[in-house]
Amino acid sequence: MTRHLPATLGELRSSEFHEERLKGRTVREELRQNLICRLERGEALFPGILGFDDTVIPQVVNAILSRHHFILLGLRGQAKTRLLRSLAELLDPVMPYVAGCEIRDNPYSPICQHCRLVLADKHDATPIAYLPPQLRYIEKLATPDVTIADMIGDLDPIKAARGGLDLSSELTIHYGLLPRAHRGIFAINELPDLAGKIQVGLFNIMQEGDVQIKGYPVRLPLEVLLVFTANPDDYTARGKIITPLKDRIGSEIRTHYPLTLEQGMAITEQEAWTQRAGRGQLFLPRFLQEVIESIAFLARDDKKIDKRCGVSQRLPISCLENVVSNAERRAIRNQEALVAPRVSDIYSALPSLTGKFELEYEGELKGADAVARELIRAAVGRVYSKYMEGANVAPVVQWFELGGSLKVSDAQPAAELVEQLEAIPGLREAAARLEADLPDHPAARASAAEFVLDGLYAHRRISRSEELGYTAGEKKRETRDHDEFPPRGARRNYQ
Fold it and tell me: Residue 420 class from Cβ within 10 Å (0-12 exposed, 13-18 middle, 19+ buried)?
């Protein structure tokens, strides 16, 4: 049933939107009151924001309760923008304003000349419109070409000519983004990229609550919550937040990447597009999910990767989507009913990894592909140690040391691969540790067995090379970088 909302100012006065409630209530007070109600009811404050419950969220809550403008400082891919956008959920369901007003003025205390004239003419017959919370959130990406007119506004000579107005009239103003955010939330992403003179333009609105347009002393006591994001490295790399503006920001809140593997996996599972309408049912082994997430954790600590730029949470998300796509492609080609990704699919997902990190000098010498392959190998080794501790893999290693070899392709049908793998003594028994929660399907068994082989390779128990056909009796050896890390799509051979 549609809720009836007052259509005129007269109806508004006798409704729940009475004058005492709206006239002196600021947007920051509105956010504070609605937040208190949620806290009292024990509701989730920011649904979909994972990993910040004990760190960032309490600081954001404190900033809102303190009625502060605040900034989120953090590296890329730390959900800063998503967190700011979720602030709109703390606003009232609807907000009444004078219909036709560009800055959604308060009908009880208008600040623009247009609304004051309308109210003086129509009184209680003044038409009222309503704004949902999503439209009360305005966001701007800071770029060096942003002008003060974009942010604050400018005089419009065409409007003056059409209305026969003097340019000094307030009715000739074309409002910028900040006045249009009146009675709402105004977010600026990447604040250091904003030119210093534009940052100066934010001073008065944050402290004194007014703005000036083209030198005219137009007083617009805007009511707005200002929130910002920035990368800490930006203070010296691309620009800086000027000191007077920093001084006016009430709270500076640091964000971070997931602190635990479980948090990272939960975020990746929430964000990655894996449940698709297509051929075959998807089964994603947990050990493979842990490998993908571990790649990001290892990359953030790798000395060959620039820590100042960070490794975004988008890396495991994109990687997982590519891994599922490669497994999906294999299942479609081989007409398999189960889509079960393997470790070989992670190697095929290199395009989703190499663009997600910036390399230091040592990494540049190796190349992005080689660094990514090292990360995959290290991640497989870490997860292998967790699942296979104490497993008897000696027969598998011995089979390879006695001259056995195996060619594995990411396009190989599951049944064919399982038949080859079962010829290796002890491999089925070792993989049984992983098969307890796996479906009884060749694709799942192939995924488990291949993980064991890659784990042995990661721990240097067996070798792997792009060369075809190891000769019988060849001893296990340390290979050169270009041997250990075959190119994308190459068949991988275990010795």
Answer: middle
Q: Is the dihedral of CA 236, 242, 244, 250 positive or negative?
A: negative
Give the residue among 193, 201, 187 at the shortest CA–CA distance from 154: 201
Q: Which CATH class is domain 9-254?
A: alpha beta
Is 255:79 a contact under the CB 8 Å cutoff? yes
Q: Where in the chain is the domain with CATH 3.40.50.300?
A: 9-254
pTM surpassing 0.70? yes
CA count, 13 A, side-chain hemisphere, 337: 4
Return the closest-CA partner of residue 302 out of 314, 311, 292.
311
Structure tokens at 459: 């721990």
d(CA 154, CA 216): 10
How far apart, in Å, are the Cα atoms of 204 and each of 69, 70, 178, 211, 219?
13, 16, 12, 6, 11
Amino acid, res. 89: E
Residues whose CB is less than 8 angstroms from the CB of residue 150 and which lie 6 or more positions away in sequence, other chains included: 140, 176, 177
Which residues have CB under 8 Å from 416's CB, separation 6+?
none
- Each residue's pLDDT, cut to its tens digit, for the chain (495 residues) gives 346 889 999 999 888 887 767 777 899 999 999 999 999 999 999 999 999 999 999 999 999 999 999 999 999 999 999 999 999 999 999 999 999 998 999 999 898 888 999 999 999 999 999 999 999 999 999 988 888 888 888 877 777 777 777 666 777 788 889 989 999 999 999 998 888 888 887 877 777 766 667 666 667 788 999 999 998 865 545 568 888 888 889 999 999 999 999 999 999 999 999 988 766 799 999 999 999 999 999 999 999 999 888 899 999 999 999 999 999 999 999 999 999 999 999 999 999 999 999 999 999 999 999 999 999 999 999 999 999 988 899 998 888 888 788 888 888 899 999 998 888 899 899 998 887 778 889 999 999 999 999 999 898 888 876 653 222 223 444 433 434 444 444 455 655
SS3 216: strand
Tell me how far apart the alpha carbons of residues 35 and 89 are, in angstroms, rounded to a whole number: 10
